[in-house]
Amino acid sequence: MSSSEIKLRGRSLILVGLGSSLLIAGFLSPLASKNPDGLDRVAQDQKFEEKAAKDNQVAAKQLPFATIFEEYSFRGAPEAIATPLAGLLGTMATFGLAWGLGKILVKGNPSQNLDLNEITKIEPSNSSHSPSQDDQNP
Question: Are 56 and 118 within 8 A, CB to CB?
Fold first, then answer.
């Protein structure tokens, strides 16, 4: 398999993965349960939800995306598309961060990186193994 075929397969895999993630985020996120998630449920059960909400209001407003997102939805969008839109934007942001970190962390010339063919190549052994006396005697 040539280097260009490997690159094409890698790009295809990335595009299929990203496309699948975007479909799931866009179409399945509205079907998510409206019940509280684990941490919210514990806060309700232990009766400290209001105190936690008061304490976190100041900190939550200082987060970079606090003006854009509210809980699991996109602020200011109609309710029908707020959650899918937040899922799509979150998926794209996560992909962008992962892609960027990958580009930063994988340094050097791409031709110096290991090739898939070299990783999976198994060289035949030229040495012939002749049984020793230890192998013959149990």
Answer: no
CB atoms within 10 A of CB 18: 14
pTM of the model: 0.60
Interatomic CA distance for residues 96 and 94, integer angstroms? 5
Give pLDDT tens digits along the chain (138 positions).
Answer: 777 888 888 889 999 999 999 999 999 988 887 787 887 788 888 877 777 666 666 666 677 777 777 777 888 888 888 889 988 998 999 999 999 998 888 875 555 555 555 555 555 555 555 555 555 555
Query: What is the residue extent of each domain of the chain?
Result: 3-107
